[in-house]
């Protein structure tokens, strides 16, 4: 009996040593703007290949909603925002390491339709017919940018009663693609990946550049992996993917 107990104890000790010697899988949590879904998805395989022991968990949504989740305690290591304002608020709240914040992409607004539409953007929006899908103007960066652009051009108030609101950029795209809205105002990057909508034209410049900043969490659980993903995103491969998916690089507009 003593021999059996001794052997069992030795086996447990060896198992414990083996477990402690094994490399534990870590998790990298990214909160990313919905409009980045395809571009980030393109970069995922490269990151997984170079970090096979890191589980990649990505939460997509409106940047404003993601910031609210962050402020409410949702775990994250890296924030990829479609809104400089939301990144700034998160940083001011102490959730982002300000030394890590870097712009990595830019975008612009376009009017699209699932059908061929003739006419100038300002004419179509100045005398609207049918429904127009836009982002929520009070809580979604796409909607905020849209309202600012159209208000500056004197077109916003005339759209009352014609607007269909989406909770994020991808829902607005879906409304336009499905024909549930006759027109849609979306990011150029979303128009570039869609086979179901045609670009009617670009919206008037609003004066506020649509800049996408990235920032690592002040209390990141996996800062090394977050830094590695950010290096991938802002390196040669990431920059090419950004352009391939219809975004511009910050220096392209200079």
Written overview of the protein:
With 254 residues, this protein is an alpha/beta fold. The protein has 2 domains: 25-106 and 211-253, D-Maltodextrin-Binding Protein, domain 2; 109-202, D-Maltodextrin-Binding Protein, domain 2. The protein is built from 10 helices and 10 strands. It has helices at residues 2-21, 37-50, 63-71, 84-92, 121-126, 141-152, 169-178, 188-193, 223-234, 236-244, and strands spanning 26-33, 54-61, 78-80, 102-107, 109-113, 132-135, 163-166, 183-187, 198-202, 210-216. The strands form 2 sheets. It has a 5-stranded mixed sheet with strand order 2-1-3-10-4. A 5-stranded mixed sheet has the order 7-6-8-5-9. Helix 2 (37-50) links the parallel strand 1 (26-33) and strand 2. Helix 2 packs antiparallel against helix 10 (236-244), helix 3 (63-71) packs parallel to helix 4 and helix 9 (223-234) crosses helix 10 (236-244). The longest helix has 20 residues, at 2-21. The chain is elongated. The N and C termini lie far apart (81 Å). Mean pLDDT is 90; it is low at 1-23. Keywords: Metal-binding, Molybdenum, Signal. It holds the Pfam family SBP_bac_11. InterPro entries: ModA, ModA/WtpA.
């Amino acid at each position: 009996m003593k021999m059996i107990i001794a052997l069992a104890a030795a086996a447990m000790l060896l198992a414990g040593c083996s477990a402690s010697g094994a490399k534990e899988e870590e998790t990298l949590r990214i909160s990313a703007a919905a409009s980045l879904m395809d571009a980030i998805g393109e970069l995922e395989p490269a990151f997984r290949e170079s970090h096979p022991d890191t589980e990649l968990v990505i939460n997509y949504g409106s940047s404003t909603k993601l910031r609210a989740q962050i402020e409410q305690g949702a775990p994250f290591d890296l924030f990829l925002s479609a809104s400089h304002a939301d990144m700034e608020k998160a940083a001011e709240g102490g959730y982002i390491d300000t030394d890590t914040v870097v712009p990595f992409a830019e975008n612009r607004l376009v009017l699209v339709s699932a059908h061929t539409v003739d006419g100038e953007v300002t004419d179509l929006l100045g005398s609207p017919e049918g429904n127009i899908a836009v982002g929520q103007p009070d809580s979604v960066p796409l909607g905020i940018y849209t309202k600012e652009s159209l208000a500056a051009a004197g077109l916003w108030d005339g759209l009352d009663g014609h607007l269909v609101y989406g909770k994020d950029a991808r829902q607005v795209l879906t409304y336009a693609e499905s024909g549930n809205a006759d027109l849609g105002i979306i990011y150029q990057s979303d128009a570039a990946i869609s086979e179901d909508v045609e670009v009617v034209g670009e919206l008037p410049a609003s004066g506020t550049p649509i800049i996408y900043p990235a920032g690592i969490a002040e209390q990141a659980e996996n800062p090394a992996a977050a830094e590695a993903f950010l290096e991938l995103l802002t390196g040669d491969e990431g920059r090419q993917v950004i352009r391939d998916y219809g975004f511009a690089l910050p220096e392209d507009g200079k």
